[in-house]
Design goal:
Helix content: 10-25%
Keywords: ATP-binding, Cytoplasm, Disulfide bond, Nucleotide-binding, RNA-binding, Transferase, tRNA processing, tRNA-binding
Distance between the termini: 37 Å
Protein name: tRNA-specific 2-thiouridylase MnmA
Number of domains: 3
Catalytic activity: S-sulfanyl-L-cysteinyl-[protein] + uridine(34) in tRNA + AH2 + ATP = 2-thiouridine(34) in tRNA + L-cysteinyl-[protein] + A + AMP + diphosphate + H(+)
Shape: globular
Strand content: 25-35%
Radius of gyration: 22 Å
Largest sheet: 6 strands, antiparallel, barrel
CATH class of the largest domain: Alpha Beta
CATH topology of the largest domain: Rossmann fold
Family: Belongs to the MnmA/TRMU family.
CATH superfamily of the largest domain: HUPs
EC number: 2.8.1.13
Structural class: alpha/beta
């Protein structure tokens, strides 16, 4: 097997430049490798000031200027492409709709699937580009039979393959991740950026949702969905409190419940279930969060779909640990059973399957099954 198939010959590469240090160094590495690189910044908000402000995100005027300055230093052409309408429809509105339905979405996965490797890639290919380059930490490996695989980055501490688990064969064939090939820490990336004269070398990373300007997800949803008072109940159905919108809660949440009635055993309570139909939030003890199995829908495979049941590891959050599972595709549903119970699994999250470091694929969690005593 060989890494990064794009290196077999010089390619026309469109480098998505967010204005951060990772994408700037990725573009610089692609250009240094001899590719014909053009930088592009995605304008994802019709009003950039309504998204994150300061050096925190990827959607501000400041970020577009940082990206342009980096492109100038690298010596590549640079453009700004307006994808605000597509982003609002495919990412922001989807995010709101998922929460309204009582699910917990990951907007970064949706952005990678619908924007960076769909809208952006389609436009790039139509303009004659061969690949889209981003600053994600992951690897594309070309096998001898010509197929491509998505793998974890060499630096597992920075690995971002989870949010790329939505990419299919066609998208992987045109994806380039220059930061995933070598064991490189973030400090080394910043040092490299400084050596290259890139002003973003010391720019802080963005961690929050880019389209929620103040980081207040509940406040953002309240403005979009309005207040909807409902009951907080325990597992027996007894009312223990009230809320102003079920969308403001996530499975496994402990803080901010504002329950006046203490639990009989005096222990903390967690969100166990969110019902948008009855506008009810159910809370209970931590051990009631244990999940033994799940069913996921809308599977997407980074290669051929698996046949029959198989043993894998699964990741349930962008920065979560792997856990051993058995998984089987039944019709259009992915059935996953955990070797050991896991907690805090919420419908709407993505489950990403791995075979070693290889990303097998991902699916959206639809339902969960509470762990029982016979789940080992």
């Amino acid at each position: 097997m060989t890494d990064t198939p794009q290196r077999t010959r010089p390619l026309r590469v469109l480098a998505a430049m967010s204005g951060g240090v990772d994408s700037a160094v990725a573009a610089a590495r692609a250009a240094e490798a001899g590719h014909d690189v053009t930088g592009v910044h995605l304008a994802l908000s019709a009003n950039p000031q309504s998204f994150r402000t300061g050096a925190r995100g990827c959607c501000t005027i400041e970020d577009s200027r940082d990206a342009r300055r980096a492109a100038d230093v690298i010596g590549i052409p640079f453009y700004v492409w307006d994808l605000a309408d597509r982003f609002r429809e495919d990412v922001v509105e989807d995010f709101v709709a998922e929460y309204e339905a009582g699910r917990t979405p990951n907007p970064c996965l949706r952005c990678n699937e619908k924007i960076k490797f769909a809208a952006l890639l389609d436009k790039a290919l139509a303009l004659g580009f061969d690949a889209v380059c981003t600053g994600h930490y992951a690897k594309v490996i070309l096998r001898e039979d010509g197929t491509r695989e998505l793998h974890r980055a060499s630096d597992l501490a920075k690995d971002q393959s989870y949010v790329l688990g939505v990419l299919d064969d066609r998208q992987l064939a045109h994806a380039m991740f220059p930061l995933g090939d070598t064991v490189t820490t973030k400090e080394e990336i910043r040092a490299e950026a400084e050596r290259r004269g890139l002003a973003v070398a010391k720019k802080p990373d963005s961690h929050d949702i880019c389209f929620i300007a103040d980081g207040d997800t509940q406040g953002f949803l309240a403005k979009r969905l309005g207040k909807a008072e409902g009951d907080i109940v325990d597992e027996s159905g007894a009312k223990v409190g009230t809320h102003e919108g079920a969308y403001g809660f996530t499975i496994g949440q402990r803080k901010g419940l504002r329950i006046g009635t203490p639990a009989p055993d005096g222990k903390p309570r967690y969100v166990l279930d969110i019902s948008p139909v009855t506008n009810t939030v159910t809370v209970g003890p931590a051990d009631s969060l244990d999940v033994g199995a799940l069913t996921a829908i809308r599977p997407r495979w980074c290669g051929a779909a698996p046949t029959g049941p198989g043993a894998y590891t699964a990741q349930l959050r962008a920065h979560g640990d792997e856990t051993e599972v058995t998984a089987e595709l039944v019709g259009e549903e992915l059935r996953v059973r955990f070797a050991e119970p896991v907690r805090g699994v919420a419908p709407g999250q993505a489950v990403v399957l791995y075979d070693g470091t290889r990303v097998v694929g991902s699916a959206t969690i639809a339902t969960t099954e509470r762990a029982t005593a016979d789940v080992a």
